[in-house]
Amino acid sequence: MFRFRARSASSSTESQIQPETPSFTTSGTEPRRIPRTGAPQANNLVDVFNVSDGRLSAPRRNASASAVPFAVSFDSHGRLAVANAGNSSVSSYRVNADGSLTTVTAGAEDGQAALCWLVGTGDTFFGGNAGSSSISAFAVDNDGHVSLTGTPD
Hints:
The chain is mainly beta. The chain has strands at 2-7, 22-27, 30-35, 45-52, 55-56, 60-63, 69-74, 80-84, 89-95, 101-109, 115-121, 124-129, 134-140, 146-150. Strands 1, 4, 5 and 6 form a four-stranded antiparallel β-sheet that branches. Strand 12 and strand 13 form a beta hairpin. The radius of gyration is 14 Å and the shape is globular. The chain starts with a strand and ends with a strand.
């Protein structure tokens, strides 16, 4: 089981950090756990924790493909999708057994401002843009590539 925590280059104080909301998926026989970090933290990293016998390993630090990774979800094939507030985009990654991430899509931008939330159903994702008060839709193809499918008029 893995635990991910998105971290970004923006500074924050402890009082700005919101509780994490876990999300679960299964890849093969091994479940993975993904909590969302509410407020951006330093370093533009996506941290992956191996969970074994109820204990977390040291984080496997992965560089984010886009700036300010903020929220996470999974597609129907267990690939990680990350909402990036910095360029208002969605990145996708394959999660490797050692906790490393392989980038599939570095960031499909929606032309809006501050994509901060992401919820998926199958291979379709909807993202909330905090800076433009809008919702965008994204699709993930069979190879894990993300494309923008809809934005507000």
